[in-house]
Amino acid sequence: MSSKVDEKSASSASPSGLVIPNEVKEKATALSQRGKQIQAKISELDFDATECANVLKTLHSVDKERRCHQLMNEVLVEQTVGEVIPRLQQRHAGIEEMKKRLGQQLEAISTQLRDLQKKYAGLSRQMTAQQSRAQDSKAEEGGGASKKSTSGVLV
Fold first, then answer.
1. Which of 18, 34, 47, 83 could be stapled to 79 by a disulfide with Cβ–Cβ 3.0 to 4.6 Å?
2. If 0-12 CB within 10 Å is exposed, 13-18 middle and 19+ buried, where does residue 13 land?
3. In angstroms, rounded to a whole number, what is the distance separating the alpha carbons of residues 142 and 132?
4. Domain range list for the chain
């Protein structure tokens, strides 16, 4: 009788009658969480890219010999606009490249999740239920606000 209990705790049946092993559920949950982390990072990088583009747009209309101040690692550095623009362009290009790589990773994770969900039809319903329970528990905890540091250029 104990072997039947162990089998039930090790896996669960989907509505279609297919048994979904816990390892598959854990893998799907881990993939889903990683996808959410990547989406959050892409959103953060979108903000940074927009901020960088706005600063570049502003600086292009300013005399290249004009002095400006840039906050770098909590240190205010005085430079000319001509010195700052190439670094900002390089940073903007790096941000866009990182967004592209993360987008590819996100697509690969989405593909893996779709494949798992096709193989185990009930998995998506179970994951949705787990995610809603997790969100409810986070809402009850209150979730702390995260502190975000940014760098800027003063002209």
1. 83
2. exposed
3. 15
4. 20-131
Q: Is 71 helix (H, G, I), strand (E, B) or coil?
A: strand
Classify residue 153 as exposed, middle or buried by CB count within 10 Å of its CB (0-12, 13-18, 19+).
buried
Strands laid side by side in the 153-154 sheet = 75-80, 67-72, 153-154
Least reliable range by pLDDT among 14-18, 32-36, 76-80, 145-149: 145-149
**Phi and psi for 41 in degrees, rounded to 5?**
-65, -40
Residue 137 CA to residue 16 CA, distance in Å, equals 29
Asked if pLDDT for residue 45 goes beyond 90, the answer is yes
d(CA 139, CA 23): 27
Record the tokens describing residue 67, joined without a space: 């002095």
pTM, rounded to two decimals:
0.65
Question: pLDDT (tens digit, 9 = 90+) per residue, 92-126?
Answer: 999 999 999 999 999 999 999 888 888 876 656 66
At position 45, the amino acid (one-letter code) is L
